[in-house]
Specification:
3-stranded antiparallel beta sheet, alpha/beta, Aminotransferase class V-fold PLP-dependent enzyme, Aspartate Aminotransferase, domain 1, Aspartate Aminotransferase, domain 2, 12 strands, pyridoxal phosphate, 7-stranded mixed beta sheet, Aminotrans_V_dom, single chain
Length: about 400
């Protein structure tokens, strides 16, 4: 594509943007642990902590300290959280489970499948390690790397030995956002699973998880939770017979025998993902975060953060600073990524100028959330251009 045509397309996208959507933050920055002189734009790495989580953690401490009655409240908190997450992802509560991380959930799924020599998995070369590595560790399984944004390439890559198409709803690497519908169609054509990682999407993008057979998301980024808890979705309508290869006391049915001379019956719902105690402490923290998410109309966060990404992309274009993030909001997430050989030094230099961004894989990643607003674009650009000139 010619430079002039690309610039014309970007200008057209800028014209469609409504600046009023992003002029004020959706969340008060003072409701988070963000110093008043700091611009926090690294939600793609991890988000600041909402002050409300302090009260939630104090409530957990009290419940944990009050014996069996407190334990019943802790378990009820997990059940309530699962129901809220199910509504947030537009699925049924029994289909939502909790794991410690995306890596754990994906590993449980991979270990449960009957892999055979010559099987293959189709995914992007830049897929996140938590999704790719569990399959890369399986002997005899081939990872077929295709540009996941190219639906035709995905359709051409699948065959009778494809067991899975795996994709991130938004890429951690360049913030690209594939259309999941043709990936679903490609998987269905050969009887493969579609597995989606919503880590870089859940919290700003309205999620319709039912398109996937299985889906996961970490909760310490846009979800505003902490580490130690991730969402695991099992589409029981599409995969009714799924069972993990291993179990623990929590993942078996309540009436299971305690002799365990044979495999006991598992819980009938996605609680079978949780082998031991649920992560009660981060569950309480995520409850406070869900209060924030549910205070907004569905789609408001997407409009807000993508108004900021398109504004920043326009400014980068004007300054002649290339980005690897697709300019079309329909094809990018809540981040803007800039590839640079001095990325780590530039990120550190921007932090010295009170702008927190993220580094990794040789790119500067600038990620927006509800506590950001349009007035921060100028200081972000100022810190970036100064750091590039250092």
């Amino acid at each position: 594509m010619g430079v002039c045509l690309l610039r014309a397309q970007r200008a057209k996208l800028r014209a469609k943007r409504n600046p009023a959507r992003t002029a004020v933050p959706l969340f008060a920055p003072t409701d988070f642990l963000i110093p008043p002189d700091l611009i926090h734009v690294c939600a793609g790495g991890q988000t600041p902590v909402p002050h409300a989580q302090g009260a939630a953690l104090a409530r957990y401490a009290l419940d944990k300290s009050t014996g069996p009655a407190g334990r019943a409240r802790m378990d009820a908190e997990v059940d309530r959280l699962r129901a809220r997450l199910a509504a947030f992802w537009s699925v049924a509560t029994p289909d939502i489970g909790l794991v410690s991380s995306v890596a754990e959930g994906m590993s449980m799924l991979v270990e449960s499948l009957d892999w055979r020599e010559g099987d293959n998995v189709v995914l992007d070369a830049h897929e996140y390690p938590s999704i790719a590595l569990p399959m890369a560790m399986r002997r005899g399984v081939t990872l077929r790397h295709v540009p996941i944004m190219d639906a035709d390439a995905v359709a051409a890559a699948v065959d009778a030995r494809t067991r899975m198409v795996a994709a991130s709803a938004a890429s951690y690497f360049d913030a690209s956002r594939p259309d999941l519908a043709p990936l679903r169609a490609a998987a269905d054509r050969v009887g493969a699973l579609l597995v989606v990682d919503y880590t870089q999407a859940s919290g700003w993008l309205p999620v319709e998880a039912g398109i996937a057979d299985f889906a996961f998301a970490a909760c310490y980024k846009w979800m505003l939770g902490g580490t130690g808890l991730a969402i695991a979705y099992w589409n029981r309508a599409r995969q009714p017979g799924w069972a993990p290869a291993t179990a623990g006391w929590y993942s078996v049915a309540d009436d299971a025998s305690n002799e365990y001379r044979s495999a006991p019956p598992l819980r009938p719902d996605a609680n079978r993902f949780t082998r031991g105690n649920p992560a009660h402490l981060p569950a309480y923290a995520l409850q406070a975060a869900m209060d924030l998410h549910e205070s907004l109309p569905r789609g408001a966060m997407q409009a807000h953060v993508q108004g900021l990404t398109t504004a920043l992309l326009a400014r980068l274009d004007q300054a002649g600073i290339p980005s690897i993030t697709p300019p079309d909001p329909a094809r990018h997430g809540a981040s803007v990524c800039i590839a640079h050989p001095r990325a780590s030094r530039i990120v550190a230099a921007m932090a010295e100028r009170n702008v927190l961004t993220w580094n990794g894989r040789g790119r500067i990643r600038i990620s927006f959330h509800g506590y950001n607003d349009l007035s921060q674009i100028d200081p972000i650009m100022g810190a970036l251009t100064a750091a590039l000139a250092d």
